Every structure is written in structure tokens, then in C-alpha cells.
Amino acid sequence: MSKDFDVVANYKSLLLNSPELSMPVAAIQSLVELIKHSNATTMSEFMLSINVASQLLKSSVRNSISLSAGCDLFLRFVTRNSQDVAEFEAWKATLIVRGQSFVEKADACRYKIAELGVPFIKDGSTILIHAHSRVVSLLLQKAAENHKRFKVFVTESSQTHGGIRSAKVLRAAGIPTTIILDAAVGYVIDKVDMVLVGAEGVVENGGLINQIGSYQMAIVAKAANKPFYAVAESYKFVRLFPLNQYDLPTYNADTLSFQELNVDYDSKSNETGADQASQGSNPLVDYTPPNYITLLFTDLGVLTPSGVSDELIKLYL
Amino acid sequence: MDPKKKTVGFVPDHDADTTTSPGGSNNASTVNSPVSAFSNTPDLSSTTNNSTTSTPNPAGSATASSQPRSINASGARSSYEPMKSSYEEQWGLTPPTRSHKTASPRDGSGFPAKEQGGSNKKENKVKTSGLGIQANAGSASTDGPQSSNSTSSAPPSAGGPPSSGNKGGSQKPSAPSQKSMTKAERRELQEKQKAEKAARVSAGLPASGKKAAQVLNQPNSGFSPNPSKSLATSFPGAEAEKAIAAAESTGQARRREKLTKEIGLFAHLDPPKFANTALAPKDLHPAVVHAGLQMAQFKICGANARCVATLNAFRKAIQDYQTPPNTTLSRHIQTYLNPHISYLVTCRPMAVSMGNAIRYLKYEIGKNLELPDEDARALFLEKIDNFIRDRITMADQVITSLGLQKIQDGDVILTYARSSVVQGLLLAAHAKGIKFKVIVVDSRPRFEGKQLLRALAAAGVPCTYVLLTAIGHVMREVNKVILGAHSLLSNGALYSRAGTAVVAMSAHERKIPVIVCCETYKFSERVQLDSFVQNEIGNPDELVNDQNNNFGHSSTRCHPSVRGANGGDAASAAAGAGVLTGWRESRDLKLLNLLYDLTPSEFVTVVITEVGLIPCTSVPVILREFLPMMQQ
């Protein structure tokens, strides 16, 4: 087995070196690297090493949802083609080639989604987005390039401050952008024409797993009768079926446990709530049920939530 | 029955039963049955007597009026047999009175000459087509005229304004010769039957008393056709067969008439059915006949059980099948199986699961027309076994393992009635050591939840038992609802035991996830928007009282004979709850016992199938993508 190759380190360095890379793509890329370095001689040894590696990857990060989507997709790809293996080395080579082409195509995914999504942005509209999502930013940039005039509210998203990053990107593209507090979603919703969010993962019923705060935005949007669109690449479709917020793999006994409240805020005055949140007691992602989602923009087309499950069934059956 | 477990919140017991259900205890029903027979019969006889002074059936009227009196005098014990026979006499009486009865309201209501002219045949036709019950009339050709009679014979129901024309059709004079003949025969047979039964009672169980007799489904159930039928099922011998034939040709048909007191909105549905070996073709395989009878009596109940029973019966039939000369097995077997299939349909409307299994079998047969006989037989048997293994047994195991992921420590799970898959899942979760509680919601008239409750309590799962009426109260404590399914339709709707929709909706109202466990072979191509278009009507007498819903004896509970009008009358009269007692005689009262309802897809959170967890809107995708794969 390829003990000498550290998948996790490879994955982390990949993400560090290219910030545009999304987690599932990076995961697939490092799995491809693993195959390259693999000196397994039998099929079962090889499969075992891949499985172990993907488990390692999943456990290496706190929020493994989009990562596991990538791993599962690649594993599915490997197992599906493992039946008709004539020659082991040749097969490994094809896997590497396919994996690399997948990584290349993943980039093209975003452009396709942007293309599909641009017609939904009307001239003179106001759009509310959440935190930072590469694909959402790209979509808005494309819309601006197409001479659409629109304004953007972006939530600060206090946990990661992704909103600030988004605002920078969008302002650079010449889009008037205002950062709002996470708590101000309800305040601005009447001025907004549509809500646009990215996704960590899209689950089997067409629901959405995304950075914390998406769910409440969806609820507010629903209450205000504003369309709520999710933007996601198809490699983020994940075989999960959460029943509610607490049915996610990221949920554990520590999440929102009450002991944390005993920590004296003043004694750690240099730490903000956000810092504490990232330390474990606060959830990083939430789950938006499909009935709050108007449409999903994906590279497979613009889908209704139930369309996602159709695609997933086709992929995994 | 299980002892009351310490873990059980509500006591799953007779007591619970009796407290929840209005009315007295089980004993009361048997002891007091004669009384009610008494109180009931005069009712009818008096009404009949009013109109039938010139009955052409003097014997019948005489017995009817005299019998109850004798019961009264003789007291409970001896009234045993008389009660029964008096009941029979009632039935025997009905034909003559019927005509008079129908005549009198007609005269009164001033619908004059019109019906005189109408010929019986024509009227029947109008009636059947109007109500859309051709299937029934067709399936039981001998009953055709009688069933029309029945609707008219229940003068109150049909006696109303517009249909009175039809009633005229039931007039005797215009009746075909066959009919009068059968009537004469009927009376004769009835006498014979009565004698037989008397002999049986005196020989079989005089000492054991009523209770034992009831448990055994023996004649004291008070229903003339049924005792013989239940006998037939328990001792499928020649004698029993004879009894069946006799019973079927006389009492059965008439009983059916009475039972089809149909409701306009549901007239397009098949009326409740009763096992009827007399109408079955003679060359049916006994295994299929057996399965059909068991299904008709709800001894085999539940989509999976019925499907497995059907397939196993067909398996035996194929095993014993002898290819006739000049044909091959694979070419002829379908013609051979067809009457079996239609027999099963006459026993009880086909379950979706059965339909899918049979369709699969036919598909396999059609695919292998060229095989030599023995190869084909072996192949079909293997295919049947594989179907049961892959689509039901293994599927249930996969569903259980997937479902386990959704049950966590501290859960309070609500379930409704009983589903074999849900029961398996809950028991597996308990065996796995997950600490959870179960609330079993149940409802009249079938109380299927008790069976689940017994299994869970025996395993030591903490349970609570409530009736459907308490759903709003218990729902606030629940955090998951797990339901079984009869079928999932192509629009994602869930077709399941009546009451499921209420449970799912009230869970949805509180945003509690509703989990449905369903094997993919139960998926249906059908689309249905409400519970009216397609449903199954159960025996309305089940609603009359539920005295017989004793916890221990599912057979007596489910047996239509035991729950027949007479027993019901007896018990309810005894308990003083005679509201529904004479419901057939009441002009404006109809009872509806629907067996299924439809839950719209938005109330179902997830469906657990053997192919994974899917939203219920993905049913057509599974049908399209997955099933063709399975058939290869």
C-alpha cells in the first residue's frame, strides 16, 4: 500500500495553492494522485487503499459534506468500471486519465452554470446572496459582463467573513454591493428580487446543505414570496437524505451543547463569538429542505429539487 | 397474549380495548346474543308482517315471528340454536317480504304505473350500469338478479325517490324461472342446513359452551352460511365442500345482497367480497383456493403477506400442473393460471403487490415460450422463489438496515396500524440497542396495531398505545413517524391503510419527518389524486360494533362471519348501544368501511426502499430506471 503518499497533506496543499479549487474537485485530484503513487498489485488491495484514503480525507476536515460528495462520486466511478478490468495497470492508467479530465471539466462546470443562470437576472433587480461562493460570484460576474444592471446585498456571514470576500470580488466587477449583517436578512428581504446561494452539497431530495444561515434566508424568502435559487455543480450532489438539521453527518453531541455557554466571554475578550463558533459548539452548515428552494442551477440544467433526485438515482443505481 | 410489560406505557390489553371502544366485554356478546337476536328479529318481522299479510311464504313468516318468542321463554342457553335458526329464517323470509315491502313504499310514495311495465331484466341492467357494478354482476352471474333485488330489498336505501323504478324490477312475477326455482331450492337447502347445523352443534360442542364455540368459529357465530365456510377452511374435506355449496347457493348470495347497501359516491367500487368456493371453477388448485379464502377472511392480510401467499400458491399450482396433450407447459400455463387469478380477485380485490408479482410471472412465462416442459417448470419455480427472495425478503432486510440509520437514541417514533416492514425495523432497532420509544396508533375496526404492539412489548420496546382520535395529543411528543405502505403511486402519493393520511398530515403540520418504508415492487404505475377513485370497501358490519375485537383471536376478529350482523346486533343490544344495530333496516343509514386512503406526496418526507432513501416524487424514476434492470 502507498504508505509513503499522504492524501490529506496532498489535499490540503492543493487547496492552499489554488484557492479557486473547490473541495470535491481537490479531493478527486488527490485521489488521482494516490492512484498514481499506488503500488498495489491486486484489485482488492487497490480498492482498499482508495477507500481508506477517502475515509481519511473525510475525517480530516470538520465539514466534510462537499468533500465526501467528491470522494463518493469518484469511488462510484471506480467501482462501476471495476467489473470489466482486463489488465490492472492499464485500468489504473485510464482511471488517472479520467480523473484528470474530470478535474478539468469541473472548472468548465461553473461557466456552464453561469451561462444558464444569467437569464434569471433581470435588469434593475436586487439580489441577495449569502457569504462567499465561487460559482455564485462567477454567475454575477458573467451577468455584469452581459451588461445587466443589478445591485447585490451580501450577508457578512460572521463565521468565515465570506461576505467581505464576495463584496470585494463583486465590486471589482463593477457591481454595486452592500454588505449586510446576517441578522438583517429579514430587514432587506422586501427590497430584494431574488435570493441566490451556493451549496456545499445537494442532497437526494433536492435539499441544500450550505454555509450556516442559508436555511433562515430560505425561510425568510419563502415568507416574503421571493424566489430562492441555489447554484451548485453536479459533483456536489451527495447521497444523503437528511430528515432535518440534526440528521446531518456534521451533527454531533457537541453541536450547540450547553456546557459551552459557561465559558466566560469577558475572560476571552479577544475572542469573538465567531471564533468560538468555529471551535466546535456552533454548526458550520445547515440544511435547507427542498420545499424552500425554487430552482437549482446546475451544469445538468436548471432543475427543480425533485429533478436532483432523478439525476442521483440515475447516477447511483 | 403477552403479559403487561413494565415498559409498556399503556396497557396493551383487553382492558385497553374495551375502554377505548364503546360497549361491553367480549363475554357479553356471546351470552347476550340470543337476546339481541330476539330484539332484532321482531323488528324485522314486524315490519315485514305489516306489509306481508299475504306472503306466499307462510312457513317463513311463521317461524320468524314464533322463534324469537321461544327464545325469550327458553332463556339464554337453549336459545343458542334457535337464535341462529331464527336468523336464518329471517333470511329465508326476505324474498317474499321483499317484494311486498318494495311494493308498499312504492304505493305510498306515489310512483305508480311505471315499474309495473318494467321487466326484470331491463331494470337490472339499468341498475347495474347506473351504479357501475358490472364487474360484480358479471363475476357472480347467478347473483345478478339477486343483487339487484338486494338493493331494492333494502327498501329504505333504494326506496327513495328516483330509483323506485328499479325496484319494480325485482318483482317476482316477471322474474325468470330460474329464480323462482332457486328460491324453492333455497328454502329446501336451508332446512337441510339447519338440520345439519343442529346436528353439528349437539355433537360437537354442547359442553364447551359458547365461548369455545366462538373461538373455533363454530356454528354459534349465528350465521348460516359462514359456519360451514369456516369449517371448510379448517377441514377441507368433501363434507365441508358440500356444506359450502349448500350455503353458498342459498345464504351467501342473499347475505351479499344485504351487505351491498352501497353509497352513491362509492358505487363504482366493488362491494365487499366474501370467499365463495361455490362460484369458483372446479379445477382450481386447492392451494390457490386456500389462499383465496384466507385472504377473503383477512386471515392473510397485508400487502407482503398476500403477495407471498399468492406466489406460494401459484408455485404449488405450477408444481402440480400437468400439461394437457398437444400443448406445452409454457404455452398453456398462463391459460391455466388465469382462472386462478380471477378467483383470487373474486375473493378480495387484488393488492397492488399481488398484481405486480403476477405481472412479473406472466412476463417470465411469456419470455420463455420455447422451453421444454420440465425446464420451463423449473425456471418458473425458480423465478417465483427469486422474486420472493429479492423483491420482498432481501428488500425488507435492506430497508431495515437503511432505516436503522434514521433511528437514534432518544427518538419517539409514531407508527400507525401494522406494517410488517415497520415492525421488523423497530425490532431490529431495539435489537441493535437503540433506546427509543414507540407510540402505536391504532383505529377501528381492525385494530391491527395491537399485533404490532404485542410484538414490540414482547421484545421490551417501550410502547404507548393510542387510538387515532388521540393523534393530536400524542403528536407533540413524537419526533419521527414511520409508516408502512400498501402501494406508492406514480405521482408520489402513498396508498395505505385508512387513517394513514391523517397521521401523515398531522405530522407534517408539526414538521415531524414522515418516513415510509416500501419495497419497490409495491410501486404502481397508477396515478390517483384522492381516495375515492380507487379504494376497497370492507364489510360494513365491522363498524357496527367491535365486541369481537378480542385481543387474542385475530381469526375471530377478522372473520366476517363472526362479525356478521347478528353477532354485532347481539352484543350491541346487550350493551345497550344499539344505535347501529338494525342499520340495514334503517332507511337513511348507510355504513362505509373504507380500507385504504391516499396520502399526498407533500406529506411524506422520505421513502426507504431497497434502492436507497428517495423522495416519494421519485417513484416514476425508479419505475423507469430501475425496474427494467430487475427484470433482466
TrEMBL record, chain A:
<dbReference type="InterPro" id="IPR042529">
    <property type="entry name" value="IF_2B-like_C"/>
</dbReference>
<dbReference type="GO" id="GO:0005085">
    <property type="term" value="F:guanyl-nucleotide exchange factor activity"/>
</dbReference>
<dbReference type="GO" id="GO:1900036">
    <property type="term" value="P:positive regulation of cellular response to heat"/>
</dbReference>
<dbReference type="GO" id="GO:0005829">
    <property type="term" value="C:cytosol"/>
</dbReference>
<dbReference type="InterPro" id="IPR051501">
    <property type="entry name" value="eIF2B_alpha/beta/delta"/>
</dbReference>
<protein>
    <recommendedName>
        <fullName>Translation initiation factor eIF2B subunit alpha</fullName>
    </recommendedName>
</protein>
<dbReference type="GO" id="GO:0002183">
    <property type="term" value="P:cytoplasmic translational initiation"/>
</dbReference>
<dbReference type="GO" id="GO:0045948">
    <property type="term" value="P:positive regulation of translational initiation"/>
</dbReference>
<dbReference type="InterPro" id="IPR037171">
    <property type="entry name" value="NagB/RpiA_transferase-like"/>
</dbReference>
<dbReference type="InterPro" id="IPR000649">
    <property type="entry name" value="IF-2B-related"/>
</dbReference>
<keyword id="KW-0648">Protein biosynthesis</keyword>
<comment type="similarity">
    <text>Belongs to the eIF-2B alpha/beta/delta subunits family.</text>
</comment>
<dbReference type="GO" id="GO:1904262">
    <property type="term" value="P:negative regulation of TORC1 signaling"/>
</dbReference>
<keyword id="KW-0963">Cytoplasm</keyword>
<dbReference type="GO" id="GO:0003743">
    <property type="term" value="F:translation initiation factor activity"/>
</dbReference>
<dbReference type="GO" id="GO:1903833">
    <property type="term" value="P:positive regulation of cellular response to amino acid starvation"/>
</dbReference>
<dbReference type="InterPro" id="IPR042528">
    <property type="entry name" value="elF-2B_alpha_N"/>
</dbReference>
<dbReference type="Pfam" id="PF01008">
    <property type="entry name" value="IF-2B"/>
</dbReference>
<comment type="subunit">
    <text>Component of the translation initiation factor 2B (eIF2B) complex which is a heterodecamer of two sets of five different subunits: alpha, beta, gamma, delta and epsilon. Subunits alpha, beta and delta comprise a regulatory subcomplex and subunits epsilon and gamma comprise a catalytic subcomplex. Within the complex, the hexameric regulatory complex resides at the center, with the two heterodimeric catalytic subcomplexes bound on opposite sides.</text>
</comment>
<keyword id="KW-0396">Initiation factor</keyword>
<dbReference type="GO" id="GO:0005851">
    <property type="term" value="C:eukaryotic translation initiation factor 2B complex"/>
</dbReference>
From TrEMBL, chain B:
<keyword id="KW-0648">Protein biosynthesis</keyword>
<feature type="compositionally biased region" description="Basic and acidic residues">
    <location>
        <begin position="182"/>
        <end position="199"/>
    </location>
</feature>
<comment type="subunit">
    <text>Component of the translation initiation factor 2B (eIF2B) complex which is a heterodecamer of two sets of five different subunits: alpha, beta, gamma, delta and epsilon. Subunits alpha, beta and delta comprise a regulatory subcomplex and subunits epsilon and gamma comprise a catalytic subcomplex. Within the complex, the hexameric regulatory complex resides at the center, with the two heterodimeric catalytic subcomplexes bound on opposite sides.</text>
</comment>
<feature type="compositionally biased region" description="Low complexity">
    <location>
        <begin position="144"/>
        <end position="174"/>
    </location>
</feature>
<feature type="compositionally biased region" description="Low complexity">
    <location>
        <begin position="39"/>
        <end position="66"/>
    </location>
</feature>
<dbReference type="GO" id="GO:0003743">
    <property type="term" value="F:translation initiation factor activity"/>
</dbReference>
<dbReference type="GO" id="GO:0002183">
    <property type="term" value="P:cytoplasmic translational initiation"/>
</dbReference>
<dbReference type="InterPro" id="IPR042529">
    <property type="entry name" value="IF_2B-like_C"/>
</dbReference>
<feature type="compositionally biased region" description="Polar residues">
    <location>
        <begin position="67"/>
        <end position="77"/>
    </location>
</feature>
<keyword id="KW-0963">Cytoplasm</keyword>
<dbReference type="InterPro" id="IPR027363">
    <property type="entry name" value="M1Pi_N"/>
</dbReference>
<dbReference type="GO" id="GO:0005829">
    <property type="term" value="C:cytosol"/>
</dbReference>
<keyword id="KW-0396">Initiation factor</keyword>
<comment type="similarity">
    <text>Belongs to the eIF-2B alpha/beta/delta subunits family.</text>
</comment>
<protein>
    <recommendedName>
        <fullName>Translation initiation factor eIF2B subunit delta</fullName>
    </recommendedName>
</protein>
<feature type="compositionally biased region" description="Polar residues">
    <location>
        <begin position="18"/>
        <end position="38"/>
    </location>
</feature>
<dbReference type="InterPro" id="IPR037171">
    <property type="entry name" value="NagB/RpiA_transferase-like"/>
</dbReference>
<dbReference type="InterPro" id="IPR000649">
    <property type="entry name" value="IF-2B-related"/>
</dbReference>
<feature type="region of interest" description="Disordered">
    <location>
        <begin position="1"/>
        <end position="211"/>
    </location>
</feature>
<dbReference type="GO" id="GO:0005085">
    <property type="term" value="F:guanyl-nucleotide exchange factor activity"/>
</dbReference>
<dbReference type="GO" id="GO:0005851">
    <property type="term" value="C:eukaryotic translation initiation factor 2B complex"/>
</dbReference>
<dbReference type="Pfam" id="PF01008">
    <property type="entry name" value="IF-2B"/>
</dbReference>
